[in-house]
Design brief:
The protein has 386 residues and is of the alpha+beta class. It contains eleven helices and 15 strands. The longest helix has 28 residues.
């Protein structure tokens, strides 16, 4: 019986001589090592499965024999070789008669010790996941908007009558009972505010677009937080001062980050709580624009990290859906509105939650050369898509 080399190494307490092929073949992502002439130098088992052919048919063959000439993989390899830095592409379509159609995230990085050599990792995404990622936030937002229109007519009008009656009643009841009438008024105001908040999901109004200094937005949010709900929290700001302007609506961006920072403060411990805000420029991060073949560059990354206990795994997949919340008295509309606003800005929001830390990361496009800080634009709401 042939012994397992990994078990033998474990028995000797020596892991320094483990063959790299064991590690590569243990990965679920398809890994390819290619040179600047697109010659395949090394692959793992997942790459064999992805391209539906054996290692013998792949090694020392050109990637151009497997993929059409217009495949985005070739542009990616050329970019990595030219810039000598890692590049990522998300929601890339790879299609051939042999393998069919695949939606993948591609990460490419140069091998520093071997000029002209690039490591590619292909992470498959299902069609359903691709469509869901592009459309779910907008569809959910429109559902909330439709509900808000109904509530505004059917609920707010009767509530105004209830509030008025409670106000008149307060003038005639005893002092002991006035607290109950105030409770009625406060609850009516809370319900009206909730309906108004839901109305912000509407796509009817045009969206203003200016060149916005994101650090001025974050500084404003920090000032509000430190003097209000976060007065007992330690804030850490790691900002990249060279970041270019964002094309967006300043007030909406303030609302986004105020919401995220408030959530981070509430999630952090009452004592020794810490919230970290970071900005950075990420080269080569591109996403597929919904409904088109255009690749959107989202280089501006802004993250908000708390020191809390993390988000339940049951909630994470539905975190940006309306009415989903882990708070005892939360409405569940804050993060869904954040996702809607970021989507309207052409950006992406992600969440990474661990046992002692949760990070919300937003990636936004920067202003183009033709847009200056003094220019303003109005984007009409899109009619395309669900």
């Amino acid at each position: 019986m042939t012994s397992n080399p990994l078990i033998d190494l474990h028995d000797r307490g020596d892991f320094t001589d483990i063959d790299g092929d064991y590690i590569l073949n243990g990965l679920t992502a398809a890994i390819l090592v290619v040179d600047d002439n697109f010659l395949i130098l090394k692959i793992n088992s997942a790459a064999e499965d992805f391209f539906r052919t054996s290692v013998g048919n792949l090694l020392d063959h050109g990637l151009d024999t497997l993929l059409p000439a217009d495949s985005p993989l070739f542009v990616l390899i050329a970019q990595v070789c030219a810039e000598q830095q890692a590049v990522s592409e998300y929601d890339v379509t790879i299609e051939t008669p042999r393998i069919g159609q695949h939606f993948v995230n591609i990460h490419a990085a140069p091998v520093v010790e071997c000029p002209g050599v690039v490591v590619l990792s292909l992470h498959s995404r299902s069609v359903a996941e691709k469509i869901d990622r592009q459309l779910s936030h907008r569809g959910a937002a429109r559902s909330v908007s439709a509900m808000a229109s109904l509530l505004a007519h059917e609920v707010k009008n009767p509530l105004s009558g209830i509030r008025g009656a409670a106000q008149l009643l307060e003038e005639t009841v005893s002092v002991e009972d006035q607290s109950l009438t105030r409770l009625i008024r406060d609850e009516v105001d809370r319900i009206c505010d909730l309906v108004d908040h839901m109305g912000m999901f509407s796509d009817d109004a045009p969206v203003r677009r200016d060149a916005v200094n994101i650090h001025q937005v974050l500084d404003h949010v920090l000032q509000i937080s430190k003097n209000g709900f976060g007065r007992h929290t330690r804030f850490v700001a790691n900002f990249d001062p060279s970041l270019p302007a964002v094309r967006g609506d300043r007030d909406q961006l303030v609302q986004v980050f105020l919401n995220l920072v408030k959530n981070a403060v509430e999630a952090s411990p009452d004592e020794a709580g810490e919230v970290v805000m970071e900005t950075s420029y990420r080269h080569g991060v591109r996403f597929a624009a919904p409904g088109t073949h255009e690749r959107v560059h989202l280089p501006l990354a802004i993250s908000v990290t708390d020191s809390g206990s993390g988000i339940s795994e049951d909630i994470r997949p539905h975190l940006f859906e309306p009415f989903v919340t882990s708070k005892a008295h939360g409405s569940g509309l804050g993060l869904s509105l954040v996702a809607k606003i970021i989507g309207d800005h052409g950006g992406v929001i992600e969440c990474e939650s661990l046992s002692q830390r949760t990070t919300f990361r937003i990636m936004l496009p920067m202003c183009t050369d033709g847009e200056s800080a003094g220019e303003a634009m109005m984007d009409e709401p899109s009619e395309a898509g669900p």
